[in-house]
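Please fill in the sequence for the structure shown.

STRUCTURE ENCODING:
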């Protein structure tokens, strides 16, 4: 997670007071064990989505308290979605419901919060949301996904470029060393031939 962004979020007292009862939950903490996109864990993804949702809803004078709470729990499914298992075969379509079910077992949620979690994958989930906050979460979720994938692929690209630059420098160094070695051998042969010629005279 970007440390500057993280500092900005943790310095926001109102947001932290709102999500703290959720993030201290032992099962919510377990989201740190599962990767969501690129190198980002489920926990980090939800945490960022929660902050952006809180920020936008507050600016628009919407229910930012419910919105940040639901956004923090929107991917609370606790499994590795890359490993194919029968109970989450259609992950994209079903994980909203699974997250809502898990969230209801741990927290008291109102209808809006339940809808936000269940329908955060809209339009994949087809039936349109009822609340404005849900639309905001669907957009924020997609934005966070794009950002996380961009950061991941950019780091891979940078790594590949650094590796290529290092490889090219190494090749140049080897060529220089080889050139110097050939030149030294040439001089040695020339010197020897000159000595032999002098001895013959
Ligand atoms: Fe999701
Ligand atoms: Fe998500």
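FILLED IN BY: designer on duty
SEQUENCE:
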């Amino acid at each position: 997670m970007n440390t500057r962004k993280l500092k900005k979020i943790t310095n926001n007292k109102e947001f932290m007071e709102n999500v703290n009862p959720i993030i201290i939950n032992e099962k919510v903490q377990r989201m740190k064990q599962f990767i969501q996109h690129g190198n980002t864990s489920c926990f980090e993804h939800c945490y960022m989505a929660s902050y952006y949702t809180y920020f936008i809803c507050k600016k628009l004078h919407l229910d930012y308290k419910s919105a940040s709470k639901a956004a923090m729990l929107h991917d609370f499914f606790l499994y590795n979605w890359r490993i194919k298992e029968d109970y989450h075969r259609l992950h994209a379509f079903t994980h909203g419901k699974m997250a809502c079910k898990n969230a209801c077992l741990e927290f008291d949620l109102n209808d809006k919060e339940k809808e936000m979690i269940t329908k955060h994958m809209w339009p994949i989930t087809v039936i349109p949301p009822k609340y404005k906050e849900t639309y905001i979460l669907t957009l924020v979720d997609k934005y966070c996904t794009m950002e996380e994938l961009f950061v991941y692929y950019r780091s891979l690209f940078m790594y590949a470029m650094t590796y290529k630059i290092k490889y090219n420098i190494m090749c140049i160094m080897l060529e220089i060393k080889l050139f110097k070695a050939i030149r030294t051998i040439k001089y040695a042969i020339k010197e020897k031939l000159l000595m032999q010629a002098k001895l013959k005279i």
